[in-house]
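task queued by scheduler; priority normal; single chain, no ligands, no partner chains; default sampling; output format set to C-alpha cells
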Amino acid sequence: MTSAANPTPECTVFFLPGLGLDAGSADAVAAAADPRLRVVGIDLLDRGRAASLDDLADTALERIAAEADGGPFLVCGHSLGGKVAARVMARLLAGTEPVFGLAGAVLLAPSPPTPEPMPDDKRAEMLATAQGEHLSREEAEAFIASNVAAPLSDALHEAAVDAVVRQPASAWRDWLTAGSREDASALVGTLDLPVVVLAGDDDDALGADAQPELVSKTYPRARVERMPGVGHLLPYEAPERVAAVLAETWDAIREGAPIVPAEWGRVLASTRVDVAVRRALANRALADDRTRAPRALTPAQVQTLRALSALLVPQGDGGTIDLALRVDALLAAGSGDGWRTAGVPSDRVAYGLGLDTVASLWPRDVQDQKDAIVSLMTDGVIAYGMTADAFRSWFEDARNDLLRVWLSHPASLARIGFDGFAIGGTGAEPAGWATIAPGEREPWEPAELGESIDDTKEDAA
C-alpha cells in the first residue's frame, strides 16, 4: 500500500556492483534514496564468471528484465559494474533486449569500456589473493582497507567484508586476467544519454582525475563530479551523496522529457515489437540535450523555431520534447520527408531563410504571436530568397515536421492511444490483432484503450 509518506516509485534504479561486491552494496544507497526511486541491487559475479563483458551483461539484463516494471529506469554501475553498465545500455538502446525504459545513468568510479588502467603490480597483487574458492576474511578486510579513504562504520565495514568473502574467487581471476583487459569500445560505441559520473579524489586508477578522459568518448553528455575525501568504494563511503545524485538526475530527466507510462513500456518490451522499432523508440524516449549546439541551424534560428513550436505543438505540463533541436538534427542528417514544393529551396536553406524572416517580424505579445502565425499560414510573407507562396509552402512543411517529430516519440503514441507499432514482433510469425472493434482491446493492449476482449467474454458468460 502506498501513501503520501510512501509514494509509488516513479523510477527504478538498477545497481550493478563492483569487483568482489554483490547486490548488498546497494543497500546503504537504497536506505538513503528518495522514496520516488526504487533501488534494485543485482548480483553480477555470483555465477563465478567475469571473463567476457557480454557474459556479465547477459547476467545483468536477465535480472533487469525480471525486475523491470515497464516504467523508466536508471542504471547505476560501480567500478566493474560501470563497464558492464556501458554494454548493458548499448544493448538496450539497440533494441535487442526485452526491456524498455532506460532514461540515464549514474556511474560510480566506473571501469571504462576500454581496458581498465590498472598497474601490473596491483593486478598481480590482487590475483595472488584470489587463488582459492573464496578470499579469506583477512584478505577481504585488506581489500576494503586499500580501497577506502577513511575507515567505514562498523556496520558498513562488516557488510562490505561479508560481500567480498561471499564472491567466488574464480570471478576475480576472470576479471583480472580477461574482463578488465577487454576493449569493448567498439561494442559500446557512443551512448548519448544523460550521465553523471561520481569519482573519489583518493582513488588512483579510476578516480576524479582519471574519469574525464576515460568517459568522454563513450558519454558525450557526462558530467563528472569529484568526491573529496572518498576512495574507490563510493556505495559504502558516500551512500547519501550517491542517493542524492540519483534523485537529482531523475529530476532533471523528468523535467526534460515526457515519460512513457509503464503499461506502454511493457508493450514496447514485449515480443510483439520488432527490434528496429524498439531501437528507434528507445532512443527517441531519451531526454534531449538542450545544451547541444545546433548542427544545421544557428542558435538564434533554433530559438525562433522553439518559439513557434511552443504555439504550434503545445505539449502541456511536465517534461517536453525539444522539437526544434530534433528538427535541427533531421536537417543536419538530411533525413526529411523528401518532399519540396517547386520554388522552395532545399530544406536546410529554406529553414534558415524562413526562420530569419519569422524572427524579423515576431511580436512579443503571445496573442500577437498567434495572430502572426495565422497570417503566415494564410498569406505568407516575402522572405529572404522566397516568394510569399514559397514561404507559405515552407511554413506548412515546417509545421508538419514539428508535428511529425512530436508524434514519433513513444510518450506521444501513448498519449494519443496508438499501439500500431506492436504488430511486427520477434517471433516466427508477425503479430497482429485477432479482433478489431470499437471500445474493445486485446489483453496485451494498454487498459486505457477500451474493454478487454477476454473481460467482455467473461461478462457475457
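post-processing summary
- The first strand starts at residue 11 and ends at 16.
- The beta strands are 11-16, 37-41, 73-78, 102-108, 195-200, 223-227, 440-441, 451-452.
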